[in-house]
Amino acid sequence: MQSVIRPNAWVALKLPSGSTKVLQIAPNTTISLGKYGSFPANLIIGRPYHLTFELQDKLPDENFSRLRIVPTSELYAEVFAEETAPECATPATGANDTVISATDGEEFSLVDEKGNVVARSNREIIDDNARQTLTQEEIEELKREGNNAGKDVIAKLLLSHTALDQKTSFSLAKYKLLKTKKYIRRFQVLPIDVANFAQWQLEERDASKIMDMRAEMIGLVGCWGNVHYGGDDVLLEDPKAAVAQGEEACVPVDEGLLRGRWLVVDDTCGLLVAAMAERMGVLYDNEDAETEGKTEEQNKDTEEQTAATPEETHRANVNETQPGKATQEGGDIEMTDVQNAPTKPQAEKKPKQQKPRPSDFAIPYSQTNTITVIHGASQPNLSLLNYWGFDITSPNHPPHPLHNHLLTLTWLQLLKPELDASYSTPPLTASPETLASWKPSRRGNFHRKRRRYARIRHIVDSTRAGNFSGLVCASTMDPISILRHTLPLLAGGAPVAIYSPSVEALAAVADCFSVPRRTAWVSGNVPEIEGLSTEELERWPGNERFPLNPTLLHGVSIQTSRARRWQVLPGRTHPLMTERGGADGYVFTAWRAKPAEGKIAAKGKFKRRKVESEAATPASA
Amino acid sequence: MATTTRNKVSPFLDPGPRTKANSLAILQLSRDNLLPVYLQPPTGEHDGYAEGAVVNTRYGSFPHSTMLNVPWGSQIRASKVDTGSRGRKRKRESGVDACREATGAGEKDDGKDNEDSAATAVNGESAPAVKQAVADTSGFIHILPPTPELWTTSLPHRTQVVYTPDYSYILHRIRARPGSVLIEAGAGSGSFTHASVRAVYNGYPTEGQRKGKVYSFEFHEQRYHKMKKELSDHGLDGLVQLTHRDVYSGGFLVDGKSPEADAVFLDLPAPWEALPNLSRRKPQTSLDTGDAAAENEQTEWVSPLNPKKSVYLCTFSPCIEQVTRTVSVMRRLGWVDIDMVEIANRKLHTSRERVGLNLNFDRGVNNSPRDVEEALARLEEIESRFREHAAKPRDGDEDMDSADEGDMQSSAKQSIATHGNPGPSADEGSSGTAPWMEGRLITRGEPEIKTHTSYLVFAVLPMEWSEGDEAAAAAKYPVGKEQKVIGAVDKAARKQERREQLQKQQGNSRKARRKERDEKLGEASG
């Protein structure tokens, strides 16, 4: 992840009120934080994450607020004061051998050295909200003056509270915290990674969009799905297919190369895919060191080209930063333009950077470390990946690691590819002469269609080849139906992790693998499976009695996890009073089994009933 | 041994499609009963067993030869193994036993393959005859590739283990990702080590390359040696660097060099004593623990943290007193976003709850009325029987007794006849519901739950930012050219912006808009 805030990066701004603002930090803009004020974006670009900034008062000759980094000693000043205060008091009392007792009737009273009561118990407190002598107008006036990042307002509010001396230390702290949250002009910049983003989406945006998936669940699903880096990239060799060649020139799927691939069904708009991509190291763009150099070079380049028109400069930059661009579809129209117009100045300027374009049938996808998304609609909904700079709908995409590692296909393409037009229609062919006679746009379309054909063919064939390293699922569809079609695609021992916001759907899946059901299945007394081969049993279509082949998964388990948050303050440590409710979230886990052929029975547990139920001895594993 | 050198990648990270000799496999005996086993190639009699190494469980005996070179996840049948006579060291003629035909067709061939490969592998010696395993009539297990989750539930306990619900959350929160460098202090039983290696792994490092790595520290010497052996057995040598050290006084540098860690996990009894060693700069002398270390290193103090990134930290302490002290020290050392949570995990079991009067008398069936109607029907029946009986004329005492008996018997027969019906038909499976589909599907918690593991304290230490850095950044991104406002814009301004945007786009085709978006994306990623 980035160490400093980069221009145009998505970040989360955490405000004193506890709310978060997610923004794309465009350079040369003003960022407004609502009631807390506004500041120029350039003041946080290039600065580290996690620092706390304070909006300062506008200088007389400037029309914007400058920022100040708040040192942690200041952030924690009150806690430090509290921590030291009792420490000073206790040795003194210890020396005088006096014992603090509650007999004076003021339980929890705090007395300073001179004997003045600093804070009292809550016996005398009058429950009245109207103890603040400052009127709303006066407060507004103070805010407008906006002195000292809101600290003045808070101090004045505290001073003009008539019953401040009657407050216990607890209620005083609470009151101050309340006012600080409201008036202090501070904020913190957090990076948009999966953890921060998911929390924001869950607690402040639309939780239903991500199926109420909590951080605990993201962690559990990732671990039980054993999602991890699946090996260095392996790319298939370019077949160098000529334009006149049809499907026979396509690269066949080499099952030996396919490794570290995970199957995903994602109805969380891409959050699950993002979480998996993060675990596989394909979510974030390029390493820091590289980009630093790159952007600098780019800047230099831009400066050199000041003579060129802005549009051209931009295009040249795009070309430079996107060497792999030609592999993407739709990029043709512009690209062919550039190539076929050598009279244009920029094509002459950068002849080296025009890499030989791979042929239409070159497969851009890695054979390892990939995520295969199966989706129910004709296009996958992975809109949340936009926050990490990846737009699945964009045909002409700048390079992004997800590009070579994210494969998507529909259920139709997986289960009935012959019915899918883009898979079953053979690719267009044309002789080079005919091609040259076409208009650039038509030529572009021709190449785009051929490329799409090769890509879809590769995705479908490699997915149907199976041997996936795991299945991870967070879907609104019935998990039983998902498993029916995905279980045959999993390698032996591959983990299955299914998330669901409620337990009922998962319980139904677990019931498909219940001990009595499995025992009945392997007992040999099921008429419908008699005579079926192992292959046929793996692809068991399911019926009412056996929705799934109950021997294909084992170690079936359902769990739920919940993080309970605590407040840790000197003398005031306790769990938070309220937290987000709603869906708890459950995870179903199991491993893909390769059942032994033929009848199999567990070691005799029920020997005494051997005579009557030899066939139905319950399996114990 | 040749196998271990050949397949360099740990079975935890890439187990391959099939089981291999000299590699770790997890045997799943029952759901929560897992057994880690290093599969051995069959090289003649082993420990008195003619079949070579054998795993004996309550589910049967499993010679390693039947578990080699099978696909992961395979169900393995138990074998008939002579466990009784091996202590007596009686010489057996292996040939005679091997002739006996195995009943299980599946692994017979596999077993033969293994025997062949083993024979070729041990080419130097005269290949000793390994007895062909004979499948037993019952008993089976599953063989699974090792994962941190399976290892966590099956590993030999040396200390308290960090379980999956905790470590999955911790690794997510401390941003352990491929390429991260992680410090772990208190390696303990190694469950967290295995999970964190999987999280940070992005290839084995070659010379001078920075790859994801775990720097692990263990204070206890015996545990350190056990752990060291375990790590190399698991093929994790280049990925975990284990150091035997007391990190309170010794700090976190390895060979005097900084690991440049991006994330830290402390599973120590006193994390606050280790925290000063995890600073950006030399810790203040007021913290007395730092003194000894500071004196040793008269030279420059090196931070073990990555100077270019925010560092994420998690401490794992069971007691609240430890937490308050840790948090207090964290605040003084400049850690921010301090957050304390505890994880409550529950496993749920699903079962069928069968309640009803006319169900069979199987185990787990509650033979009480299913609903009010059923209860009512039975009560009505009993009531009518009484009424019938009362209406009968009373002839004499003897007669009454006999009549009563006969009546009761007949009605009992009747009730059995009416109610006993669904039972046998369900057993047949042809009509009615199958027995495994009867009743209501329910979930319930496991009988014993872990109510408290430990408190997790998370914190972040931002990158150090000097005035010089600030000046450089200010020069690179000068202010004063602000064009528009983003963020919390009031409604009027937002509307105005939208209007302008629409005007600009009018006449532009959809394609142009798309292009614009692409360019924007390009800027964002570039």
From TrEMBL, chain A:
Coiled coil: none annotated. The keyword Transmembrane helix does not apply. InterPro entries: TRM6. It comes from the Eukaryota. Residues 291-303 have a biased composition (Basic and acidic residues). Belongs to the TRM6/GCD10 family. This is tRNA (adenine(58)-N(1))-methyltransferase non-catalytic subunit TRM6. It comes from Achaetomium macrosporum. The lineage of its organism: Eukaryota, Fungi, Dikarya, Ascomycota, Pezizomycotina.
From TrEMBL, chain B:
Residues 80-127, 386-436, 490-526 are annotated as: Disordered. The keyword Acyltransferase does not apply. InterPro entries: SAM-dependent_MTases_sf, TRM61_C, tRNA_MeTrfase_Gcd14. It is an enzyme of class 2 (transferase). PANTHER family: TRNA (ADENINE(58)-N(1))-METHYLTRANSFERASE, TRNA (ADENINE(58)-N(1))-METHYLTRANSFERASE CATALYTIC SUBUNIT TRMT61A. Catalytic subunit of tRNA (adenine-N(1)-)-methyltransferase, which catalyzes the formation of N(1)-methyladenine at position 58 (m1A58) in initiator methionyl-tRNA. This is tRNA (adenine(58)-N(1))-methyltransferase catalytic subunit TRM61. It comes from Achaetomium macrosporum.
